[in-house]
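Appendix C: a fully annotated inverse folding record. The material below is reproduced so that readers can follow the format used throughout the book. The structure is listed first as tokens, followed by the designed sequence.
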């Protein structure tokens, strides 16, 4: 009979103790696995949802301006050698190496038109990308569908006395007010938003762009590298990152990982104590058995190997079932937290390996002290105390 067959038979013989040992490890591993996987799923989900923060990269035309102050009179900025953006630059952005990190690319063209004897700033936009970028917009009316439909900011609508369904005439072209944007507290309140191609056409500036806003998924993406790549593709543009927005994203997403790490550490500590208590009580009950092994010639190392083998076998099963249970829990909890009807069961091979490894490490660490103490037990003392 070899040492490992002794370990298997010992586990089968002491079903109650074995069940409690495996069960305590399964609870610990499933809790840790579910926390890690929930954190991973929520991070991915949150990176997409954090687009509500708006753009974090701005691309503007490059211009050279001189501030003129002559004779104590400020004449403002004198601009020369201005290089504009155009629609072709969008395809250049699409070709950068880190394109996968770009969530939304929102081009804009601004032009002032005269409407009802008042100058109004029109913003030509791609409404699909604009709605992704500005999820905080609340529309009174409906979203534009047709090329001639527009959205009007709260202040502009009040100043021009316009309501959903009204029509406006710009350069002999009739536009329909599809909806009003409720007050945002930003410059959007003073603008009229229309189809970018239509605004370019009415202004006689085909394909010209005033600004490109980009929302990048930048919890861990190289934002400065994205800026560098974009600058190389559009060398005549001024590409800048809005670091405050990126910092907010990183802080928000990072809290989930910190929470998961903190709870996981606590669960590991509790599981170590539970396994230690179980193994210690079990070995105290087996003093006669250990004494018999020692009396027939088993060395301290042999006894230690028997105990460690028992813990390792139990931990392997606990790690496997703990991972499966944790993955099920993570799918249920993720669906609940995100109000999703879809149940996610994501098989993660590295996570399975980590779960089994963690179960074995926790089991061995928790049982090492009582196993060493039992291996040094004097057989005569063991028999005397029975």
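Designed amino acids, in order:
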């Amino acid at each position: 009979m070899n040492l490992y067959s002794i370990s298997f038979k010992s586990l089968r013989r002491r079903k109650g103790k074995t069940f409690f040992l495996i069960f305590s490890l399964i609870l610990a591993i499933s809790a840790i696995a579910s926390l890690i996987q929930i954190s991973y799923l929520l991070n991915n989900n949150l990176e997409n949802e954090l687009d509500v923060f708006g753009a974090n990269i701005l691309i503007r035309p490059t211009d050279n301006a001189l501030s003129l102050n002559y004779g104590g009179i400020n004449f403002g900025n004198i601009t020369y050698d201005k290089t504009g953006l155009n629609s072709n630059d969008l395809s250049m952005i699409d070709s950068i190496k880190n394109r996968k990190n770009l969530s939304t690319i929102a081009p804009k063209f601004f032009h002032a038109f005269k409407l009802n004897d008042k100058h109004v700033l029109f913003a030509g936009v791609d409404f699909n990308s604009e709605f992704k970028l500005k999820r905080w917009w609340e529309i009174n009316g409906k979203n534009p569908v047709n090329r001639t439909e527009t959205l009007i900011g709260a202040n502009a609508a009040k100043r021009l006395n316009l309501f959903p369904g009204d029509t406006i005439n710009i350069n002999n072209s009739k536009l329909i007010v599809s909806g009003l944007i409720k007050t945002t507290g930003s410059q959007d309140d003073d603008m009229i938003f229309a189809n970018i191609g239509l605004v370019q056409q009415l202004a006689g500036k085909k394909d010209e762009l005033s600004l490109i806003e980009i929302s990048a998924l930048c919890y861990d993406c190289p934002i400065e590298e994205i800026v560098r790549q974009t600058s190389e593709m559009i060398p005549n543009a001024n590409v800048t990152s809005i670091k405050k927005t990126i910092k907010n994203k990183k802080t928000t997403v990072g809290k989930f990982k910190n929470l998961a790490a903190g709870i996981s550490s606590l669960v590991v500590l509790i599981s170590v104590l539970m396994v230690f208590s179980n193994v210690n009580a079990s070995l105290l009950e087996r003093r006669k058995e250990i004494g018999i092994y020692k009396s027939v010639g088993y060395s301290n190392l042999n006894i230690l190997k028997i105990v460690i083998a028992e813990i390792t076998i139990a931990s392997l099963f606990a790690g496997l079932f703990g991972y499966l249970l944790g993955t099920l829990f993570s799918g249920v909890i993720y669906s609940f937290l995100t109000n999703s009807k879809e149940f996610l069961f994501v098989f993660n091979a590295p996570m399975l390996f980590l779960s089994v490894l963690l179960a074995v490490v926790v089991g061995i660490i928790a049982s090492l002290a009582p196993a060493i103490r039992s291996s040094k037990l004097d057989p005569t003392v063991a028999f005397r105390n029975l």
